[in-house]
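The instructor's notes for this session suggest beginning with a concrete chain rather than abstract definitions. Hand out the sequence below and ask the class to guess, before any prediction is shown, which regions might be ordered.
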Amino acid sequence: MPRAKRGVKARRRRNRIRKAASGFRGGRRRIYRRTVEAVHHAWMHAYRGRKQKKRDMRRLWIVRIGAAARMHGLSYSRMINGLSLAGVELDRKILAELAVVDAEAFAKIAQVAKDALSSQSKAA
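After discussion, reveal the predicted structure:
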C-alpha cells in the first residue's frame, strides 16, 4: 500500500493561510509558523470587530439624533419617548440619516414628537 503524503491537501491549506496573510509585513507573511499565528489573530480581531461595528454605529446614530433634536428643543431621550408615544416606528439609523441629509423632514418628525409629549403631559 503506498504511503499518503498529504501533499495536495497540505499545500492547499498552507496556500489558503498564505493568501489570508497577503498584505502582512516581514516574517508575518514569509515564515509559515508566524503566518499562521498572525492570520489566526487577524481572524479573531475581525470577528470581534464585526460585533463592535454594530455598537459603534448605534452610538454614532444616537449622537447624531441627539444633536439634531437639541436644535429643535428636545433631548435625545425625550425625542425617542415622544416618537414612541406618537407611534412613529422609525429606527435610529433612519432618524440619523434624516438628521444629516433631510433637515426639513427631521424637523417635522421632531414636531410630531413634541406634540405627542405635550398631549401626554396634558392628559396626566
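Then share the key points. The chain has a mean pLDDT of 95. The chain has one domain: 7-123.
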